[in-house]
Amino acid sequence: MTATALIRHLPGLIGQSVALRGWVVTTRSSGKIAFLVIRDGTGYLQCVIAKQDVDEATWETSRLLTLETSVEVSGEIREDSRSPGGVELGVESLATLGPSADFPIGKKEHGTAFLFERRHLWLRSRRQTAIMLVRHEVVQAIRDFYYERDFVLVDTPLLTGAVGESTGTLFETEYFDLGKAYLAQTGQLYAEAAAAALGRVYCFGPTFRAEKSKTRRHLTEFWMVEPEVAWYDSDDNMRLQEEFVSYVVARCLERCKAELDILGRDRGPLESVVAPFPRISYGEAIQRLRDLGSDIRWGQDLGGDAETQLAQQFDRPVFVYNYPRDVKAFYMKQNPADPTTVLCNDCLAPEGYGEIIGGSQREDDHDLLLGRIREEGLPEKAYGWYLDLRKYGTFVHSGFGLGVERTVAWICGVPHIREVIAFPRMMTRLYP
Ligand code: 4AD
Ligand code: MG
């Protein structure tokens, strides 16, 4: 096939003749002139077909086009201030490449079950492509942030022998003669080993949890970025988180204006996302919730509603730190000032999005860690290598995990995280 132009580049090609390929978005025709909007993934372009300027085949083609037909058009790029991108195409020729009869997603409102069953086609919509572009920017911002700060990317395994977070949400499979393997719930434990080798590292990949809850905030497969830093304590860890989250949000404000507009996202709340973020201890969080009328008691984990209520009190993300050790994972460092709590934090996003980050300082004392592994009934043998990190030059270290989908949903202002990953995996969805 011959080279064709991308719609995104057309404003620089005014007066030139170009050929383009794309898909039909709308058509409108009077007796003598037809208007066609096509998209190619980089933008939308209005094409104008004047009957008197084109051959019969082109005119006939233009009259028969239907939604999502793939086409090739050529003609001259003209300035047109009313069009998106400020240009339109004066069509000289038009050909159908692939017909599309009865495209199932039309102009009328469809229910979400209908749309998710047709996710492979729904992705082509203006709103869905805007979300994918914001996600793309978030992922690039994440990589840039760590690259600029000398963090080394370490890819951690997706098949593991040791439980990373909790036994309640494991996907397991038989693994040859070695017994059970689990799909990784986190890359953290491996990132800790890498931090002892490289100092500042991060892993970034898909993680898996057999979440049986059907909430707006849970997928069974989601992406997480997990930095791990040697010599960072819990305070350093929170400072890194606030710098990181503000960086990612600022990048989207700067580079995703058009997409946020398509999504109708109010930019005001995002503009307040500037470090430092407020910090409240778990104990203070419980007190605040009780003052708001909740009957939550010290020792209970914060549920989604409690997180929403707390976060509503602030104009930017808020850290809740030092949770009771009994509601948190075995690897978190015991708080020397209060052994009933651990040195950890969650970061709660505003506007009802809840926890986007979970992080902690790690238990660096061999015997305390072994005690926790035993207490949780975890198979000691599978953690031999993890305990070694505390036997050979143990080190203060901390890290956290940021959920990509929750972050993108919040930045986009999309209520349900299933809409911010191309092909969501949930308890009730494996197709397409
Ligand atoms: O709080 P979590 O479970 O923390 C960890 O996995 C740690 N190992 C991270 C670390 O310290 N390296 O999960 C971290 C984040 C949550 O804050 C949330 O944003 C996201 O991962 N997350 C989910 N996102 C979508 N669907 C789910 N089922 C999620 N579970 C957690
Ligand atoms: Mg968590």
CATH domain topology of the largest domain? BirA Bifunctional Protein, domain 2
* Average of per-residue pLDDT values: 96
Please summarize the sheet with the most strands: 8 strands, mixed
C-alpha-based Rg, rounded? 26 Å
Instruction: Classify the secondary structure makeup into a structural class.
Output: alpha+beta
Bound molecules: 4-amino-1,4-dioxobutan-2-aminium adenosine-5'-monophosphate, magnesium ion
In what order do the strands lie side by side in the largest sheet?
6-10-11-16-15-14-13-12
- Provide the number of structural domains: 2
The CATH class of the largest domain is identified as Alpha Beta
Pick out the low-confidence regions: none
CATH architecture assignment of the largest domain: 2-Layer Sandwich
Quantity of strands, as a count: 16
Topology as H/E string? EEEHEEHHHEEEEHEEHHHEHHEEEHHEH
Model description:
With 432 residues, the chain is of the alpha+beta class. It folds into 2 domains: 3-98, Nucleic acid-binding proteins (OB fold (Dihydrolipoamide Acetyltransferase, E2P)), CATH 2.40.50.140; 119-419, Bira Bifunctional Protein, Domain 2 (BirA Bifunctional Protein, domain 2), CATH 3.30.930.10. It has 13 helices and 16 strands. It has helices at residues 56-64, 112-117, 119-122, 126-148, 188-198, 234-255, 257-262, 268-271, 282-291, 304-311, 366-375, 384-391, 404-412, and strands at residues 17-29, 33-39, 44-50, 70-79, 87-98, 152-153, 159-160, 172-174, 180-183, 200-208, 221-230, 279-281, 318-321, 344-349, 354-361, 397-403. The strands form 3 sheets. Strands 6-10-11-16-15-14-13-12 form an 8-stranded mixed sheet. Strands 1-2-3-5-4 form a 5-stranded mixed beta barrel. A hairpin with a 7-residue loop joins strand 4 and strand 5 (87-98). Helix 4 packs across helix 6 and helix 4 (126-148) crosses helix 13 (404-412). The longest helix is centred in the N-terminal third of the chain and has 23 residues, at 126-148. It is elongated.
